[in-house]
UniProtKB/TrEMBL annotation:
InterPro entries tied to this protein: Acyl_CoA_acyltransferase (IPR016181), GNAT_dom (IPR000182), Rv0428c-like_C (IPR056935), YpeA/RimI_acetyltransf (IPR050680)
PROSITE patterns the UniProt entry points to: GNAT (PS51186)
Domain N-acetyltransferase: residue ranges: 119-249
Keyword list, A-Z: Acyltransferase, Transferase
Pfam family, one: Rv0428c_C
A GO MF term: acyltransferase activity, transferring groups other than amino-acyl groups
Origin superkingdom: Bacteria
Keyword Acyltransferase: yes
Protein name: GNAT family N-acetyltransferase
Length: 249
């Protein structure tokens, strides 16, 4: 079975990690979610052939984001038009966070015996995620607002050891693709196989929800995560990055 193409993965990602506000401009999509994650607070192009008036549209999209009190960000994938990329180059936009999309056909995975699944907005899950992610209350509120927009099957996945929550993630199934996000483990318990146990548990849940494929985003310099995902069967599909105005932060 061949894997979906970049457009299929990107469109599934829109459903698995939604913006709170979205606006299409041709094949360019603007998204805002209170600043919580660049993925949900950025503009991206879904058609390389949609390049008319790229310079004007970059300004318009940037203004739209500023009006929503988020920083102008473009997500650049293989679907971005060359003219968009050239426009950002000419305006001296910087490249940050080079990343990859990994994916695989979804086989059978056995959930960890301690795995627990929550509705994404379950207060218990939110409290666990806040502790493991070291989120302040404002960041937690922003995450909660984003999760409230989910309209596809989704679950908070939690792994326990010695009665304590030690790893968590959010799994969503969109268009037959199980997409993992917000992977985190207790920093005092790393190198204990917890991330792998959490991933297997989430993938088992996604399979039960009817997913045929699995995908996730991983930052390019996160070698440990890439090794983990490769060991589970994921393979590199394509690269993407973000562009921001001015000097890289």
């Amino acid at each position: 079975m061949s894997l979906p193409d970049a457009e299929a993965f990107e469109r599934a990602g829109l459903l698995a990690w939604p913006g709170i506000e979205e606006k299409w401009d041709g094949a360019w999509l603007r998204r805002a979610a209170g600043g919580y994650t660049k993925r949900a607070n950025s503009t991206q192009c879904f058609d390389p052939d949609d390049f008319e008036d790229a310079d004007v549209r970059v300004i318009s999209a940037s203004s739209w984001m500023v009006l929503r009190k988020i920083k102008p960000v473009f997500r650049i994938t293989p679907l971005s038009s060359p003219e968009l990329n050239a426009t950002l180059d000419e305006a001296d936009w910087q490249t940050i966070d080079p990343s990859h999309l990994f994916a695989m056909e979804l086989g059978d995975f056995e959930a960890d015996a301690s795995a627990e699944y929550f509705a994404p907005l379950d207060p218990k899950f939110l409290a666990i995620a806040q502790r493991l992610q070291s989120y302040d209350d404002a960041t937690l509120a922003a995450m909660k607002a984003l999760l409230a927009m989910l309209a596809v099957p989704a679950a908070g996945v939690v792994i326990h050891r010695d009665g304590e929550a030690v790893a968590s993630s959010i799994m969503a199934v969109a268009n037959g693709i199980g997409i993992t996000g917000n992977v985190v483990t207790d920093p005092t318990r790393r190198r204990q196989g917890l991330a792998a146990a959490m991933m297997r548990s989430g993938l088992s849940w996604a399979k039960d929800q009817g997913a045929k494929f699995a995908a996730l985003n991983v930052q390019g310099d996160n070698e440990a995560a890439k090794a983990l995902y490769t060991g589970l069967g994921y393979t590199h599909q394509y690269d993407y990055h973000y562009r921001i105005p001015g000097a890289a932060k």
